[in-house]
Design a protein that fits this description.
The complex is a heterodimer. Chain A has a single domain, classed as Ferrous iron transport protein A (FeoA) (SH3 type barrels). Chain A is built from two helices and six strands; from the N terminus they run ββαβββαβ. Chain A has a six-stranded antiparallel β-sheet. In chain A, 17% of the residues lie in helices and 43% in strands. By secondary structure, chain B is α/β, with parallel strands linked by helices. Helix content of chain B is 61%, strand content 8%. In chain B, the strands form two sheets. A six-stranded mixed β-sheet of chain B has the order 2-3-1-4-5-7, with helices on both faces. In chain B, strands 6-8 form a two-stranded antiparallel sheet. In chain B, α3 links the parallel β4 and β5. In chain B, α15 runs antiparallel to α17 and α17 runs parallel beside α22. The chains are: A alpha+beta, B alpha/beta. β5 of chain A pairs antiparallel with β9 of chain B, so a sheet runs across the interface.
């Protein structure tokens, strides 16, 4: 187990969120969309050159800007 | 006693479709979050009393994190809870995420009734929900519906009166998801399904390589279809009707009017080689209807057909992912494609939908870029009509200039405006294939809207222009602006009339260029200038409303500066 950010894990891999190192607004917004500490997510895709990261959380597909994804720290298997 | 009914739910669960079903009021619905940016109101007849129904913008939570959510939540608290009913609309394919808002509504003591929408789609995807059990656990009425086909709506209306507050303990934000997890375990059963074609396409469209290939294919095909359908309608329907049917009738009824007389000038305009020429005569009964119905309407139909199709399928948010990168350099993020694409239809809804962007800064950049670099369908149709015969090079050239301007101005604005633009954070809807009747209704609504807005302005506009031309009142402006128009842009001084009329309507403005006998270079410059110079009056009003006076002035100054630079650059440097 190692702690890295959502931008660093491979496409197709599963990870558990251990911290969101952003402001309150970001944490709340993500929380409301079902992305919060302890949630398991799957990284679906990552558009190159600092493009967005697409994840699956529960049954939702979410696109996160590169900056947001870099703030989400996960535990990869 | 219920005085008002509110429709609330997460973004993109079909609130607007339910709203249309309940009230009969047609509103635009699409398959992406944030279609509803204006609050729609309608009435539902319930036991002989008319009750107002309000369609709120989508919100994930009662603790708002964006301005659209704030609007929804504050409206909900306008009336005392005893006087309202809240229909909470849920997407059955994603029950878990939707329940957060539901729990908050119930905990806060709102009289809630749950409309579990998209039930057919859930079944398709192997999601089975035990509605009775959910009703028991939440202790509020739950009705499963499929709003696009109308299934369950009658039952929903019957049970509105059962909405009543229930006692439910308030819990901490963090605990709610755990609670929801427990509820889901009891009521939701997932069948394991193999990936079907739809899911394969959903995945492929957001992956880097396949995504860009698909995007290129879809954009190319869309463009081709818009042209094919638009031209098809012109060549096979509108042109024959105008030339074979309308023209003889017109000639019969007006032959007694004296040519060169006031009325003849007003209604028919000038005869070209002794005949009515719909493109050049400039009369209220000749060129005015021909521009709107014979040249613009066919493209309005074909454009909105494709846009509505892409909207309903749910492709646009995927395009937003792919373009996020580039748009970030312009101080925007991926979701700015939505206002951008709507702007290609008409700048007004485009600028209205900049409300999907969070910050004032982003909205200013997006609105300014749309006003300058995104030509509306009527303008595009006229540019095709005017420049098309000189080959794709010139038409393509106009687009090239416009897109370069978007890139350059966006880049500069992003570097010079204070603040920074927020990050992209968007839920991507699954692909959906709503019934064709839905698409047809939306198309009909948009086309009707276009005709109602455009026709009176065009007819009255051409009438007034003709009177002014007859009385030679334009000569004053023509003389005043001659140095700029002739000296800088290399256009005949009469072209100012067209640029001024561009403020009224862009399509008529291009129409005014037609009789001037311009060269290709002059047409190219004039058409480009019409696109970038100044928005039409409707867009201008919306800009004012959305941005405020100060930003409007700033935006306008940018437009005027850019027009002067681009006009002279094209004249002196590029097209020598």
């Amino acid at each position: 187990m190692k702690k890295i950010t959502l931008t660093q894990i491979k496409e197709g891999s599963k990870a558990r969120i251990i911290e969101i190192s952003g402001g309150h607004n970001l944490i709340d917004r993500l929380m409301n969309m079902g992305v919060y500490k302890g949630k398991e997510v799957t990284k679906l895709s990552h558009i190159g050159l600092r493009g967005p990261v697409v994840i699956k959380a529960g049954r939702s597909i979410l696109a996160l800007g590169h900056g947001v994804a870099a703030k989400i720290i996960v535990e990869a298997e | 006693m219920i005085k008002k009914i509110y429709l609330i739910g997460n973004p993109n669960v079909g609130k607007s479709v339910v709203f249309s079903r309940l009230t009969g009021v047609q509103v635009i619905s699409s398959n992406y979050p944030g279609t509803t940016v204006e609050i729609s109101k309608g009435y539902l007849l319930l036991k002989d009393s008319k009750i107002e129904v309000v369609d709120l913008p989508g919100t994930y939570s009662l603790e708002p994190t964006s301005s659209a959510e704030e609007v929804a939540v504050s409206l909900l608290k306008e009336l005392p809870k005893e006087e309202i009913a809240v229909i909470n609309i849920l997407d059955a394919t994603n029950l878990e995420r939707n329940l957060l808002l539901t729990l908050q509504l119930i905990e806060d003591g709102f009289p809630v009734i749950i409309c579990l929408n998209m039930c057919d789609d859930a079944t398709h995807r192997g999601v089975n929900i035990d509605v009775d059990k959910l009703e028991k656990i939440l202790n509020v009425p739950v009705i499963s519906t499929c709003a696009v086909t109308g299934v369950g709506i009658k039952l929903l209306i019957e049970r509105i009166k059962e909405s009543a507050p229930t006692a439910r303990k308030k819990i901490a934000h963090e605990e709610r998801w755990l609670e929801i997890g427990r509820i889901i375990e009891q009521v939701q059963h997932l069948e394991h399904r193999h990936h079907n074609l739809r899911e394969v396409l959903e995945d492929a469209s957001v992956r880097p390589i396949t995504g860009f290939l698909m995007a290129a294919g879809i954009i190319y095909a869309s463009f081709k279809i818009v042209r094919f359908v638009g031209e098809g309608i012109i060549n096979n329907i509108t042109d024959p009707v105008f030339i074979k049917l309308y023209q003889p009738i017109l000639e019969k009824f007006t032959f007694h009017l004296q040519e060169k007389g006031f009325w003849f000038h007003l209604l028919i305009g000038d005869l070209i080689n002794g005949k009515i020429d719909f493109k050049q005569s400039l009369g209220v009964l000749t060129t005015a209807p021909y521009i709107e119905i014979g040249m613009v309407l066919p493209y309005v139909i074909s454009f909105y057909f494709i846009l509505s199709l892409l909207e309903d399928i749910g492709y646009l948010p995927r395009l937003a992912i792919l373009l996020d990168n580039i748009l970030h350099r312009l101080g925007l993020h991926g979701y700015a494609v939505i206002p951008g694409l709507l702007g290609f239809g008409c700048n007004v809804p485009g600028i209205l939908s900049t409300r999907v962007l969070e910050s004032k800064r982003e909205r200013f950049i997006a609105a300014t870029l749309i006003s300058i670099g995104v030509p509306c369908v009527p303008l595009q149709a006229m540019i095709f009509g005017l420049l098309g015969k000189f080959g794709g090079f010139y038409v393509g050239g106009v687009y090239l200039v416009l897109f370069s301007l978007i890139a350059i101005i966006g880049f500069i604005l992003n570097r010079t405006l204070r603040g920074y633009s927020p990050e992209f954070l968007l839920e991507i809807p699954p692909y959906r294939f709503p019934p064709l009747s839905m698409l047809g209704r939306k198309l009909y609504y948009r086309i009707k809207g276009f005709l109602i807005e455009a026709m009176p302005v065009v007819l009255i506009g051409v009438l007034v222009i003709n009177i002014l031309l007859y009385l030679k009142l334009f000569d004053f402006i023509t003389g005043m602006f001659a140095p700029i128009i002739q000296g800088l842009f290399g256009l005949p001084k009469e072209a100012i009339v067209s640029l001024v009329i561009g403020f009224l309507r862009k399509d008529v403005a291009v129409g005014m260029l037609m009789p001037l006998g311009l060269t290709v270079k002059q047409l190219f410059i004039a058409a480009t200038l019409l696109a970038i110079s100044f928005p039409c009056v409707a867009t201008f009003v919306v800009l004012w409303k959305e941005l405020g006076f100060k930003s409007l002035v700033k935006s306008t100054l940018i437009m005027i500066t850019v027009s002067l630079i681009v006009g002279s650059a094209l004249n002196f440097l590029i097209l020598r």
